[in-house]
């Protein structure tokens, strides 16, 4: 879809299907502001050949998964999940079991050898 702006419903909901909305931007900062203004954050995708930009933008995107120069980010080995209204926690990978575990911290002090 072209002619999309941030106030449109398609930018605020997760669209599962072969749909891409296109919003023009002039700077990296503007692109990040637009991307992060969404209420959802399952995944974000972008293209770049600049390694510094890849890590800078990937860190700043408010999403659970980032695809760089790649449209398919899902596989059994990766932690699948989002942020914001896209959910909490991860499925798959070694992180998927975390929701089913109880963590216990034990601190012992003052013992003599």
In short:
The chain is an alpha+beta fold and 113 residues long. It has two helices and four strands; from the N terminus they run H-E-E-H-E-E.
Question: How are the SSEs ordered, and which strands pair?
Answer:
Blueprint: H1 28-36, E1 40-41, E2 43-46, H2 51-60, E3 65-68, E4 83-84
Parallel strand pairs: 2-3
Antiparallel strand pairs: 1-4
Kindly describe this structure.
There is one protein chain. 10% of the residues are buried. Helix content is 17%, strand content 11%. With 113 residues, it is an alpha+beta fold. The chain has helices at 28-36, 51-60, and strands at 40-41, 43-46, 65-68, 83-84. It has two helices and four strands, in the order H-E-E-H-E-E. It has a two-stranded antiparallel ribbon. The protein has a two-stranded parallel ribbon with strand order 2-3. The mean pLDDT is 91.
Q: For the residues shown, what is the average pLDDT? A: 91
Individual helix count? 2
Show unreliable segments. Answer: none
What is the chain-wise order of helices and strands?
HEEHEE
Rounded radius of gyration (Å): 19 Å
The percentage of residues in β strands lies in: 5-15%
Task: Count every beta strand, where a strand is a DSSP E run of 2 or more residues.
Answer: 4
- Structural class of the secondary elements? alpha+beta
Instruction: Tell me the helix content.
Output: 10-25%
Major β-sheet profile: 2 strands, antiparallel
The backbone outline, from C-alpha atoms, is elongated
Strand order of the largest sheet: 1-4
First-residue to last-residue Cα separation: 70 Å
């Amino acid at each position: 879809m072209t002619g999309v702006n941030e106030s449109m419903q398609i930018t605020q909901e997760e669209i599962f299907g072969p749909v891409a909305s296109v919003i023009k931007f002039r700077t990296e900062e503007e692109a990040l502001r637009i991307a992060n203004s969404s209420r959802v954050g399952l995944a974000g995708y972008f293209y770049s050949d600049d390694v510094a930009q890849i890590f800078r933008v990937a860190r700043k995107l408010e999403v659970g998964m980032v695809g760089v120069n790649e449209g398919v980010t899902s596989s059994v080995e990766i932690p699948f999940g989002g942020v914001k209204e896209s959910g909490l926690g991860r499925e798959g990978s070694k992180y998927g079991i975390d929701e089913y575990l109880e963590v216990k911290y034990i601190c012992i002090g003052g013992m003599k050898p």
